[in-house]
From TrEMBL:
Organism: Drosophila persimilis
UniProt keywords, alphabetically: Cell cycle, Cell division, Chromosome, Cytoplasm, DNA condensation, Mitosis
InterPro entries membership: Condensin_barren_su2
Entry similarity comment: Belongs to the CND2 (condensin subunit 2) family.
Span list, region Disordered: 1-48
Protein name: Condensin complex subunit 2
Places the protein is found: Chromosome; Cytoplasm
Length: 213
């Protein structure tokens, strides 16, 4: 009967008793690797030369009006074009699209439009109380028989003053586009005329006067 303590390769005493020296194999593998890469580059270059020669000969035949569906197979033109298309598709598949991060709002912003319109109207009317010289107003087309109040208001000044009359919650939701949306509503409701500047950095707001009877 075999003793349960007989020496086997799996016992701890056997570990390290035989060690394969594969340094020579690793050196040989490193030596062969550049040769394989070089052979691959050479074969690719030879294939490109052969493909170029095939296409050039086919073009010559076509220019001499000697290329037909019968000799197209003999010139291996179809196989050459198929190889070129296959290689082109493989190159396209290797392309990686650059990851582009588009900044956008992560959460929906809620704002009280009724309160915003009321605040914009109050700030506009406050500015309109200060008369200005007509020469300081940007030139603009005037509809027939339309007159304006003496003062003007600036959208930039209105937007700059809005945070002072808003709560902290509404300040976070305020943006120039939202404020412009409110002013456009007011222009339609309150008969306001919007006059842009030449540099488009701001626009003036004028109050259209009602026609006297």
């Amino acid at each position: 009967m075999t003793s349960p303590h007989s020496e086997t390769p799996l016992r701890r005493s056997a570990v390290g008793s035989y060690r394969k020296n594969d340094e020579a194999e690793r050196q040989e593998a490193r030596r062969r690797t550049p040769l394989v890469q070089q052979d691959t580059r050479k074969s690719s270059a030879l294939e490109s030369i052969e493909e170029n020669e095939t296409i050039r000969s086919c073009v010559d035949l076509y220019n001499c009006n000697k290329l037909s569906k019968d000799n197209a197979w003999d010139t291996s033109l179809i196989d050459t074009l198929a190889n070129l298309m296959d290689r082109h598709h493989k190159q396209l598949n290797n392309f990686k699209v650059t990851k582009v991060i588009v900044p956008f709002a992560k959460r929906a912003k809620v704002i009280d439009m009724k309160n915003l319109k009321k605040s914009c109207h109050s700030l506009i009317q406050k500015q309109l109380l200060n008369p200005v010289d007509e020469t300081s107003v940007p030139s603009h087309s005037v509809p027939k028989e339309e007159s304006y109040a003496k003062g003007t208001a600036s959208f930039q000044e209105v937007y700059r003053s809005l945070p002072d009359v808003f709560s902290d919650k509404m300040k976070d939701s305020l943006s120039p586009s939202v404020a412009l949306y409110a002013v456009l509503h007011l222009a339609n409701d309150m008969k306001l005329r919007l006059i842009p500047q030449e540099n488009l950095e701001d626009f003036q707001i004028r109050q259209v006067l009602d026609d006297e009877v």
